[in-house]
Amino acid sequence: MDNNRILLSEKDLVQRWYNVAADLPKPCAPPLNPGTGQPLTPDMLTPIFPMALIEQEVSQERWIEIPDPVREVLKLWRPTPLHRAFNLEKALGTPARIYYKNESLSPPGSHKPNTAVAQVYYNKQAGIKRISTETGAGQWGSALAFACSKFGVECTVYMVKVSYEQKPMRKSLMHIWNAEVFPSPTDRTNSGRAFRQRFPGTTGSLGMAISEAVEDAATHEDTNYSLGSVLNHVMLHQTVIGLEAKKQFEIAGDYPDILIACAGGGSNFSGFTFPFVPDKLKGKEIRIIAAEPAACPSLTKGPFRYDFGDTGKMTPLLKMHTLGHVFVPPGIHAGGLRYHGMAPLVSHLKDLGIIEATALNQIECFEAGILFARTEGTIPAPETTHAIRAAVVEALKCKETGEEKCIAFNFSGHGHLDLSAYDKYYEKALEDYEYPEELIKQALKEVPEVK
């Protein structure tokens, strides 16, 4: 099929989320209460999450219905197109067929509203007045602010300090959608003040911002906490991406040999790839690749063990690939990928050998992003450039071997508000960071031992 875009209509809007937990050959290890070391019970999460999301977090049901009010908001931009990247193929001189799922068309410009809308809806149904959250690059914060504005819920965002300074226009988006935004770590919370004292002059991290947002929610009765990645219910909501893509590949008369998405906490990666996992489990030959930054290599260098999801040790213990909850990655421009751990479901699939991972440096990723912008037109977010770079690497392998493989990646968000990062690239002011193994070992010393 030679169409540039494979489109679905509103009548094709996904009606049910797919839960990969139902098809795993081995169940995930449960989250643990850090005080007792025993598996967490749902009632322990009620101070910060509505019961509907807690039930989704622990569900083993394969399919979960999407509420009509959620689908009505998703209709603003979904279904999104699946593009054939003919111009990129030509520029690379590859026989490979390259596709990308375009998640940049949502109002905030990324995949993040797919779960933000659902989470705010369930909180609104539970009578919650305000939601607190963290954000790295600002994609999640702006998505939650957008969703809160649609349902009339207040929104407080703790934005990692380095991104708060690097990406002021994402902060502007949040303000337009009526959210309050603070550079983390702040002096508003006990955890924020402790981080400022322990790490003087810190650029912040997602782990720190999560601690502040969780503390905010736990200390205000009218407030709940919302997380943009990592948790099972977030992975669930994002599967609208891959479910649409499967329909679109049927229309195109094609099927991917290689699936790629960037990975920080795991949300866009899981959303794009999880619906294809049952095919692989049934014997379909398909490689599923997570592309992460070499500066924050949780999947490629982090051990698979229990750790806290935040720096302040306020979350349950999650079994995941982790660099240690006190790990503070360098201030790379892919702020959404600067997280010390990886989603338990994604980590579990990596441990089972169902998915693989590659670590990439930011300069090579920006080069790939610029090539994409010059061939396909849209400027990608720094996070998205990791998926593009990984796709380029695979396409060039096909050029060497002559194989006509089908390569598909998730275009998780545009970079229209990241142009200062591209300016840094042209000024030759970007650096590559290979995080030293010794510093990772030091951070891992503070990870609790769990038998």
UniProtKB/TrEMBL annotation:
Pathway: Amino-acid biosynthesis; L-tryptophan biosynthesis; L-tryptophan from chorismate: step 5/5. Pfam families: PALP (PF00291). It is an enzyme of class 4 (lyase). GO terms for molecular function: L-serine hydro-lyase (adding indole, L-tryptophan-forming) activity; pyridoxal phosphate binding; tryptophan synthase activity. It catalyses: (1S,2R)-1-C-(indol-3-yl)glycerol 3-phosphate + L-serine = D-glyceraldehyde 3-phosphate + L-tryptophan + H2O. InterPro entries: Trp_synth_b-like (IPR006316), Trp_synth_b_CS (IPR006653), Trp_synth_beta (IPR006654), Trp_synth_beta/beta-like (IPR023026), TrpB-like_PALP (IPR001926), TrpB-like_PALP_sf (IPR036052). One of its GO terms (cellular component) is cytoplasm. Belongs to the TrpB family. PANTHER family: TRYPTOPHAN SYNTHASE, TRYPTOPHAN SYNTHASE-RELATED. This is Tryptophan synthase beta chain.
